[in-house]
Amino acid sequence: MRTSGSRIALAAFSALAAATVFTAPAEATVFNQAISVRSEAHIGEDGTITLSGSYRCEQPSPKGTIQVKATLVQDDVHLGLGAGEAVCDGRDHDWQAHAPLGYTPQVHAGPAEATAELQEIHFSGLMPSSLDTVAADEKVIEVVDHR
């Protein structure tokens, strides 16, 4: 009898371990996400800088949404640009992020580092509860000034 009790306990433990390994958490991120940033950013005549690129993503978890975030670093200037919510249907989409240079007039023509990220925001009720970067691209780009 002692042996069968041990076997039952071992079988129950094995079933629990298998369920834990093969069950994805409710907020699991799908790993078919990709983003790229183009090799040039443009400063328009109005003094607005534009970064652009493309992305692909799958539908996020039911409690999340995916957004595109872009960042430009040149000399000592760090400029964050939000490109808005992503359309996650598994197809390729273009994105653009714009920011006026009124508070960062030091941005100029020449090389800069650009980063584009797909960020999944998880919500707990109406409030964001966590933020995960699910895809990123970082490269040295050229800023072109059209003013």
Structural class: mainly beta
CATH architectural label: Sandwich
CATH superfamily: Immunoglobulins
Helix content: 10-25%
Count of structural domains: 1
Integer-rounded radius of gyration: 22 Å
Count the strands?
Answer: 8
The CATH class label is: Mainly Beta
Q: Could you describe the largest sheet, including whether it forms a barrel?
A: 8 strands, mixed
Which sequence of SSEs, written as H and E, runs from N to C?
HEEEEEEEE
Strand content: over 45%
The whole-number mean of residue pLDDT values reads: 81
Q: Could you list the spans in which at least 5 consecutive residues all have pLDDT below 50? A: 5-30
Characterize the overall form. elongated
Give the N-to-C terminal Cα separation: 87 Å
Separate helix tally: 1
Using the coordinates shown, work out and report the CATH topology.
Immunoglobulin-like
Q: How would you describe this protein?
A:
The chain has one helix at 2-22, and strands spanning 34-37, 40-43, 48-56, 64-74, 77-85, 92-100, 110-124, 127-145. The chain is mostly beta strands and 147 residues long. It has a single domain, classed as Immunoglobulin-like (Sandwich). Strands 1, 2, 3, 4, 5, 6, 7 and 8 form an eight-stranded mixed β-sheet that branches. The longest helix is centred in the N-terminal third of the chain and has 21 residues, at 2-22. The termini are far apart.
Task: Kindly summarize this structure in a few lines.
By secondary structure, this protein is mainly beta.
Search tags:
single chain; 147 residues; mainly beta; Immunoglobulin-like; eight-stranded mixed β-sheet; 1 helix; 8 strands; elongated
